[in-house]
Amino acid sequence: MTTRPDSLAAAHVLRHAIEIGPEGVQERIELGIAEEIPLTLIFNEFHVHAVMMVTPLDLHDFVLGFVLTEKIIAAPSDMISCHIERHDEQLTAHIRITGADFSRLIRRGQRLLTGGSSCGLCGVTSLDNIATATPSLPAHSIPVSSIRAALNALPDQQVLNQQVHMVHAAAWASPDGIIHYVREDVGRHNALDKLIGILSQSPRDPGRGFCLLTSRCSYEMVEKALTLGISTLVAVSSPTDRAIQIARKADMTLIGNARRDRFSVFCGGHRLVRPETLEMMTT
């Protein structure tokens, strides 16, 4: 028997943002934002195998797909049961498998990953390992026009993507909107890690400019940026709710749905400088 406490309503929340459109026109909007919650996988009430970041929807399908692709079981019928519980912002999957499969899993030990190209947490084995960094970020201003200029310039600087049309990019631009570094990779985390690597060796102050992401922005992308003191993060898609919470706590400027003519400001709007005399709406 399988318990599925998930629903579409539980998989997203509504959050307010400020959309800045052409010529700096502002509009307060409400957007559906995906939830991102840690799911602890416990086998036979004994073995804590991994903690994965998931959207709390179709969780039974996730667990079954996970145990099959990880070769923990050979067939769907080998998963005897899966009971999923939610307590506050944590999920636990109690998975029961056959004795033979469990013995083989124990011999394998806890999950060791090489860092998949799209995983959110990459399988840590304890919720204590999910850190929420809250460094002190600089209050340098970023003109809205500079963000637009960088968004316009980025496609021409994605040299690998121009050839293959399927890789992610992470870029860093100075406050004037000039892009100084672009790094590309099939994995969105890898692209950002590459950018952080070059920035860590650069004489430029990462906090004085802003980072552009061509990928979705989940919480760990925010945390990666925070490790180097990047104070403004611009992504082409909406961030997850956990990403917004972490960015707001760190006083980061977080922008999503970034297009050449408009974008949504989820928090930290005080850093943005508009050409008009009107003040930035608070987020």
TrEMBL record:
<dbReference type="GO" id="GO:0016491">
    <property type="term" value="F:oxidoreductase activity"/>
</dbReference>
<dbReference type="GO" id="GO:0016783">
    <property type="term" value="F:sulfurtransferase activity"/>
</dbReference>
<comment type="similarity">
    <text>Belongs to the FdhD family.</text>
</comment>
<protein>
    <recommendedName>
        <fullName>Sulfur carrier protein FdhD</fullName>
    </recommendedName>
</protein>
<dbReference type="Pfam" id="PF02634">
    <property type="entry name" value="FdhD-NarQ"/>
</dbReference>
<dbReference type="GO" id="GO:0006777">
    <property type="term" value="P:Mo-molybdopterin cofactor biosynthetic process"/>
</dbReference>
<dbReference type="InterPro" id="IPR016193">
    <property type="entry name" value="Cytidine_deaminase-like"/>
</dbReference>
<comment type="function">
    <text>Required for formate dehydrogenase (FDH) activity. Acts as a sulfur carrier protein that transfers sulfur from IscS to the molybdenum cofactor prior to its insertion into FDH.</text>
</comment>
<keyword id="KW-0501">Molybdenum cofactor biosynthesis</keyword>
<feature type="active site" description="Cysteine persulfide intermediate">
    <location>
        <position position="119"/>
    </location>
</feature>
<dbReference type="InterPro" id="IPR003786">
    <property type="entry name" value="FdhD"/>
</dbReference>
<dbReference type="GO" id="GO:0097163">
    <property type="term" value="F:sulfur carrier activity"/>
</dbReference>
<keyword id="KW-0963">Cytoplasm</keyword>
<keyword id="KW-0560">Oxidoreductase</keyword>
<dbReference type="GO" id="GO:0005737">
    <property type="term" value="C:cytoplasm"/>
</dbReference>
